[in-house]
Specification:
This protein is an alpha/beta fold. Helix content is about 25%, strand content about 25%. An 8-stranded parallel barrel has the order 1-2-3-4-5-6-7-14, surrounded by 4 helices. It has a 4-stranded antiparallel sheet with strand order 8-13-12-11, with no helix packed on it. A two-stranded antiparallel sheet has the order 9-10. The protein is globular, with a radius of gyration of 17 Å. The chain starts with 6 loop residues before the first strand and ends with a strand.
Length: about 230
């Protein structure tokens, strides 16, 4: 069996796009932008253009769960990006976005995001493989290194492992403005809240509208791409 070649990738917050060095961007097999957790954190075409112009080889646009208005807004924006640029992947966490992409942009590589992969990491291999085939998914995004052993050696899709923060929970209430909002001033961008866990030495990290624990994935087997998030999750 051919040994997997491990790709090195990076996740950037939107404000970090302009400050990332050209050398850093060229070293990455792929650069992830956007958010898997908040529908208000969305890259514009200008952000994607800036990444490619500064040396990025490939860009993955992360998308989250969305309400109807947010989904329509994201579909329109994403179509503008996909029609303008090649070498773009989409991380999908909303079933409506998955159906939209398969109908209007079937050729674009799509991966199952961390909010959905939590369940798929625990499913039987036959059902999982068939689901990925039917919905034209080429990869699975995860931060559950401990569950990689549940996947067969040849799962039928690529595995992308994210670190150093492991997803724990998500809330509709934004921890940065302390309320539920469909439109916001993106006050979370470039910021991470550290929250002590009572009766524990551990901390929760709030990034966008989600909460994470810090972890070290080590050098896991069965991974095609290791995605390090520079400042957030």
């Amino acid at each position: 069996m051919r040994k997997r070649e491990l790709e090195k990738a990076a996740g950037l917050e939107l404000p970090e796009i302009k400050s990332a060095s050209r050398r850093f961007l060229r070293e990455q097999a792929c650069v992830y932008v956007g958010s898997e957790f908040c529908q208000n954190i969305w890259p514009a075409a200008a952000d994607v253009e800036a990444l490619f112009s500064r040396g990025a080889r490939r860009v993955a646009v992360m998308t989250s769960f969305m309400v109807t208005e947010g989904l329509k807004r994201a579909q329109d924006s994403l179509s503008g990006i996909l029609e303008r640029f090649g070498n773009v992947e989409v991380v999908v966490n909303d079933p409506g976005m998955l159906l939209y992409l398969n109908e209007f942009h079937p050729e674009v590589p799509k991966s199952l995001g961390r909010l959905l992969s939590i369940d798929f990491m625990r499913m039987g291999p036959d059902y999982r493989r068939e689901f990925f085939r039917l919905h034209r998914l080429s990869a699975l995004e995860t931060d559950e290194a401990g569950l990689l052993r549940n996947l067969p050696a040849a799962p039928g899709f690529r595995v992308h492992l994210h670190y150093p923060l492991k997803y724990a929970a998500m809330s509709r209430a934004c921890p940065f403005v302390r309320r539920i909002t469909l439109r916001c001033g993106r006050k979370c961008l470039g910021r991470t809240l550290r929250l002590p866990v009572p009766d524990s030495r551990r901390e929760l990290f709030a990034v966008n509208n989600a909460y994470f624990f810090e972890y070290d994935p080590g050098t896991p087997a069965g991974v095609d791409r290791l995605v390090r998030h520079v400042s957030g999750a």
